[in-house]
Each structure stands twice: as structure tokens, then as C-alpha cells.
Amino acid sequence: SLKVIEDAVKRGADFLVVHHGLFWNKDPYPIVGSKRKKLKLLLDHDISLIAYHLPLDAHPEVGNNFKAAKDMGWQNLEPFYDIGVRGTFSPMDRKAFQKQLELYYGREAHTVFGGKETVSSAALISGGAYRQIADASAVGVDAYITGNVDEPAYHLAKEEGINFFALGHDATEKVGPKALMEHLQQKFPLQTTFLGENNPF
Predict the structure, then answer these.
(1) Closest CA to 74 of 101, 55, 93, 105
(2) The total number of structural domains that make up the chain
(3) How high is the mean pLDDT in each 10-residue block of the chain (201 residues)?
(4) Which among 39, 47, 172, 176 could bridge 126 via Cys, Cβ 3.0 to 4.6 Å?
């Protein structure tokens, strides 16, 4: 965001590591509006911008998904749907599982209780992946977690017989950047700080 770049300028940063960069896929790239302001700030203050998107979702150590699963004590971790993770944990009531997720991500979950009342397995894809509800159901997990949610998720979770939890795109994608920052601190003599906004989406 523009605010994060402004904060980086104030702190005299040499480089800024982000999850979402300024250019994505086949989007048009006219340098106007807020994009121009961001690039001008970076260039005027000699700040390098380094973006790790899907690799930082999928990484088995500092990625958004594997890191969260490990932090929450999941076992038997394996990749799910290219960039996500699936795993198992001690059986618990699905409402207790929801509370655990909300405590970890610091957000209230949008929830669909479409599956078993007691859960012991889950799949997780950070960010905008509610469309993978059926894929999670197909691998037999009791719950599926992601960031974004939209109207079709309600019926899909009910029809697929799976518990669904959406904790926010922003909240689920802060895990990896924070873990990467800690990793860089350990490997290199760098002064680092996490810059972020409280984005409710």
C-alpha cells in the first residue's frame, strides 16, 4: 500500500519485502494514479521492492500456510492444492477450532458449519481461495480454512459436507512475511521491522 511505502521512506529503508507486488499476471501496467505515486516514492528514495507472492504461500518453512499449521500444532503436514497445506490434530469441537483460528489470526471468522461437529483434520490456503472448498472435501478433511469468502461458499460448504472458515485475506497472508523477516534477521546483519496496516478484508 502507499502507506507502507511512506512508512518505509520515514524509516530510511533500503528495501521493502512484500507479498503482493505492484504488477500481477497480465494486468495492464499504466503508471498512473496511486501506482505512479508508489513507484515515484520508491525510486526517489532508492528503495528496492522485492515481492514474493505464490512462493511465500507455498514455502514449507516460512510460507503462510505451513507456518500457520505448524504454529497451531498440526501434524502429518503435506501440500494441498499446490500452495496450501493439510494436516491432522487432536480431535476438538468445531467451535473450539474456530476459536483457535480466531485467536491465531486475530480476526473473527466467517464460518459455515457444514461438516462434522468434531474435527481432527483440515486444509488451509491463505488469501483468496474459497473456491477450493470442494477440493478440500475431496481429500477428506473435516475443515477448510482460507482468507476470502463470497456468497457461493455457504451452499458449497453445506453441500460438500465440510466446515468452512474464512479469516480474511490480509490476516492469513501476514504469517509468511513475518516469518521471512525473522529468518532474514537470523541469516544476515539486518535491521528489520514489519510494516502493515489493519486491513479488515
Answers:
(1) 101
(2) 2
(3) 94 91 80 93 95 89 97 98 97 99 98 98 97 98 97 97 97 94 92 87 87
(4) 172
List the CATH number of the domain containing 128.
3.40.1390.30
Q: Quote the CA–CA distance of 138 and 132 in Å, as a whole number.
A: 10
Q: Quick one: which of 173, 177, 164, 166 has its CA closest to 199?
A: 173
User: Contact at 8 Å (CB) between 174 and 196?
Assistant: yes
Could you tell me the residue range of the domain that residue 112 belongs to? 57-172
Question: Smallest Cα–Cα separation from 99: which of 18, 167, 26, 22?
Answer: 167
3-state DSSP helix/strand/coil % of the chain, to nearest 5: 40, 20, 40
Q: Which of 29, 34, 180 is nearest to 42 (CA)?
A: 34
Sign (positive/negative) of CA torsion 81, 83, 88, 91? negative
CA dihedral 165, 168, 169, 175 (to 10 degrees): -90
Note if the pTM is more than 0.85. yes
